[in-house]
Design a protein that fits this description.
The chain is an alpha+beta fold. The protein has helices at about 1-20, 85-105, 110-140, 145-195, and strands at about 25, 30-55, 60, 70, 75-80, 200, 205-210, 215-220, 225-240, 250-255, 265-270, 280-290, 300-315, 325-330, 335, 340, 345-350, 360. The strands form three sheets. Strands 2-9-12-11-10-13 form a six-stranded antiparallel beta barrel. A four-stranded antiparallel beta sheet has the order 1-18-14-15, with no helix packed on it. It is rod-shaped, with a radius of gyration of 47 Å. The two termini are about 40 Å apart.
């Protein structure tokens, strides 16, 4: 039994001995030309992008568009149930037609007044002639003063009656015209409200998304479709630490999730001046200098914004760096260094070691 237990122990000791003889990997800091860049995530979108939203509550009766459709300006996107509004429009039209009839010169109300005016004019002509005859007789002392004054009073009364009827005609005509205008405005208002039940495009473009289906309930302000047109833009989210490094015109290397093995060149075209609370980032736009044949709105992406080039920068392989920016020297000493730019392959050394130091790769 002793013999059986000896060989495994001997074999393990031999393995440890051989393993301990393998020298650890080492390197020395070396000068290198590096490109500084700011990393950003984001997505693609069309230059002109807007949403068609419901203006009223109601059931969607018609939804004639689908994703990918090209639409023109004022194209119909959806019709919302509008029975009540149609009834109100019909009622407003009926009131308007009635007001038109009453405001016409041959309307019964105005014709009745005109008839009274005609009769008053005839009566005035008769009373004027009678008054003039009595005045002539009174001047000749051929009629009593009482008879003359009675004729004069009758003439003045006929004048007043005619003026009153003419004033009443004008006032009635004005009131009827006012009613006609009010009813016309009401028809226009009801038509305008009815247009709220027909959702149309503001500008031409392509339907990117349709959010509702025919027969569903649409609430006021709820999105029904998204329309887009124009060039594709790159929308990037930049951290507060990096936004001051970004400037207009800087080149951008873009990697789309739909083309993970390619980088597409772009250039910074716009920097939004305010912090976006919703995204908790600053927002930067870039435009493609070269883009793939097939593009889709909303494609997720990663990008590196080139902020500058530096020569003779001291770097070490990132894998030689331990937590806390600590490196191990050939002597076995661990030393903390100050680092600058870093990626998965290289880390910039700001201070702490020189090109003469030999570093051991952490085990």
């Amino acid at each position: 039994m002793k013999k059986q237990s000896f060989w495994p122990v001997l074999g393990l000791a031999l393995f440890l001995s051989l393993h301990s003889c393998t020298p650890p990997e080492s390197t020395v800091p070396a000068p290198k030309s590096i490109t500084d860049a700011v990393f950003a995530s984001g997505y693609t979108e069309r230059e002109n992008n807007y949403t068609v939203s419901a203006k009223v509550d109601g059931i969607i009766l018609t939804l004639p568009v689908v994703e990918g459709d090209s639409v023109r300006t004022d194209a119909l996107i959806a019709v919302v149930e509008n029975d009540v509004q149609n009834n109100q429009l019909a009622d407003a039209r009926a009131v308007y037609q009635d007001a038109q009839s009453k405001a016409a010169p041959n309307s019964p109300q105005l014709q009745s007044l005109q008839t009274q005016i005609d009769q008053a004019q005839q009566q005035l002509a008769f009373d004027r002639e009678n008054f003039q005859r009595y005045r002539s007789l009174w001047e000749k002392k051929s009629v009593a003063q009482l008879e003359f004054e009675k004729a004069e009073l009758q003439f003045q009364s006929a004048q007043n009656n005619l003026r009153s009827l003419e004033q009443q005609y004008r006032e009635t005509q004005d009131q009827l015209q006012l009613n006609l205008e009010r009813s016309r405005v009401q028809v226009s208002t009801q038509r305008s409200l009815l247009r709220d039940y027909e959702l149309r495009t503001e500008a031409s473009g392509r339907v990117i998304q349709v959010f509702k289906k025919q027969g569903e309930l649409a609430r006021r302000g709820e999105a029904l479709a998204q329309i887009a047109s124009g060039d594709y833009l790159i929308r990037l989210f930049i951290s507060e630490d990096d936004i001051t490094k970004v400037n207009l015109g800087q080149s951008v290397a873009v990697q789309l999730n739909t083309y993970p093995n390619r980088n597409f060149p772009a250039r910074v075209s716009k920097i939004y001046p305010a912090f976006d609370e919703a995204e908790q980032s600053y927002i930067v736009e870039a435009r493609f200098e070269e883009q793939p044949a097939k593009m889709f709105s909303g494609t997720q992406l990663q990008a590196n914004i080139k902020t500058g080039n530096r020569k003779n920068v001291l770097v070490i392989p990132t894998e030689y760096l331990s937590r806390g920016n600590v490196v191990q020297l050939e002597s076995g000493e661990e030393k903390q260094i100050e680092t600058g730019s870093k990626n998965q392959e290289w880390t910039e050394v700001v201070s702490g070691i020189t090109q003469r130091d030999v570093l051991l790769k952490p085990q």
